[in-house]
Amino acid sequence: MQKRWVVKDAPDAAKVQNIANSLNIGHALASILCQRDICTFDEAKYFFRPSLDNLHDPFLLKDMDKAVNRLVDALHRQERILIYGDYDVDGTTSVALVYGFLQPYFQDRIEYYIPDRYSEGYGVSFQGIDWAQENGYSLIISLDCGVKSIDKIAYATTKGIDFIICDHHLPDEELPQAVAVLDAKRADCPYPYKELAGCGVGFKFMQAFCQQQGFDEEPLFQLLDLVVVSIAADIVPITGENRILAYHGLQRLNNGVLRPGLQALKELAELRSELDITQIVFGFAPRINAAGRMGDAKRSVAMLLAKTKEEAFDKVQKINVSNSERRGHDTSITKEALQMIEDDDFLRNACSTVLYKESWHKGVVGIVASRCIEKYYRPTIILTESNGKATGSARSVHGFDVHQAILACSDLLDQFGGHMYAAGLTLPVENVPAFRERFEQIVAETILEEQRVPMVEIDMPLELHQINQKFFNILKQMEPFGPGNMAPVFMSTCVYDTGSARVVGDAHLKLRLTQDGETFFDAIAFGMAEYYPRIQKGIPFDVCYCIEENVFRGNVTLQLRIKDIRFA
Length: 568
Hints:
Blueprint: E1 4-7, H1 13-23, H2 27-35, H3 41-48, H4 64-76, E2 81-85, H5 89-106, E3 110-113, H6 126-134, E4 139-143, H7 150-158, E5 162-166, E6 180-182, H8 198-213, H9 218-221, H10 224-233, H11 240-255, H12 260-268, H13 277-294, H14 298-305, H15 309-342, H16 345-349, E7 353-356, H17 365-375, E8 380-386, E9 389-395, H18 402-407, E10 415-418, E11 422-428, H19 432-446, E12 455-458, E13 460-461, H20 469-476, E14 490-497, E15 502-504, E16 508-514, E17 520-525, H21 532-536, E18 541-552, E19 555-566
Helix pairs in contact: 1-2, 4-8, 5-8, 5-10, 5-14, 8-10, 10-11, 10-13, 12-15, 13-15, 14-15, 15-17
């Protein structure tokens, strides 16, 4: 698919010179920092040395005092409390963190609950509340869900059950009548950072609990490995407070003793090198998610809480079976969905994709939506049948708010929720045709032409001879990379292969590139074997790429990971 290359505007020259002088670095690196609003020595110090001392006061979260007071009351009154979380990675890591931290204080008076994706659906459920009442729980702490569960919280109140909600999704104007609603996105919340993941909100709750009770926070900081997994998997911005949490979480993963569950996942995913955000996203997240997609997400929590290597490996093996099953459904349904588009003139030329088939597996529809976007780059919704309703997931393209587009169709829906780029929805099956028509109309009227073409955002042009180990070492200090702080992308023009180009695997290219015949870099281009015939002929081309380290037989060299290739 042809991509659109967009080079970022050059930052103010005076600011670049200032930060270059302050840090004694070259203009290329200084420009990258200024593009990320790091233009002074103090800003650079805050960025390059993320400190736990710079975490915000947790009591700045609206209702935090109420939440902590209710938790302390439950502790003193020896109440039974239930830790309730969503079935995705953010939800299960949140539950593992809060349950794991509080369990020594509540001992056998605390339990955790993950709703079944198929029988209960997303978020707080009536079934879960009934289970809590039947088992004598008087306080429920919900994590990564609950901020829209007005009717469920009201129902819990009639059962004599209090709720503390820890969520990070955008709430409606009306909030549930819970004891406390911890959500930085509340309109009346003064918390200075709005992009915490659900696990991050749970962490702040536990931090406030420690501070009020005078407990040492170090045992809580040891749980930051769970927080960074949630940050990576939920694709929240790695800026501000999230950057601090992610940085120290990665330190914990790489320099501390891995918890048995994550160690087992690392070995199963064959992740040999130092863990980073990308490895968590592609190595950890699919396997943790698989338990909820294909069965019982409580298995993921149990795996994360496992005390021994043997216990962890037993649980991870079972989760991996679920992941293999998930991949099978993912592949077959994606193939079927793409064929449906290809066979339909309207779908093939539409501005959006909305597909429904009652037999598709509910656990993989979000993945299938993402796969469809890889070929047909446009807002996509994949629906299946569950409990007599059409239910599914939406995914979007760069710059287009799919949540707002779905909101414009809300009169056709039973419920929906999510973010700019991902959402879930449920509607009567008979409304699917009308929804498909309305959604297409909304997208066609609001999507910009440039949003219909995949974009590669390039930080700056670069000559290959400017790349060296010192340059890379400073780039590496900008990690962790992710939304809001992506790995820098560079563009080099008129490069050519030295004659070593070859196809590896089914569709990848291994190259050795030069511009001047004096500086050479190995390069890997995934999924770009189609360019091999022209490259082999020695035809010059332009590349955009990230710089990374490649470890081979114990040798570490710099390598270009190519994002796109363009011929004149």
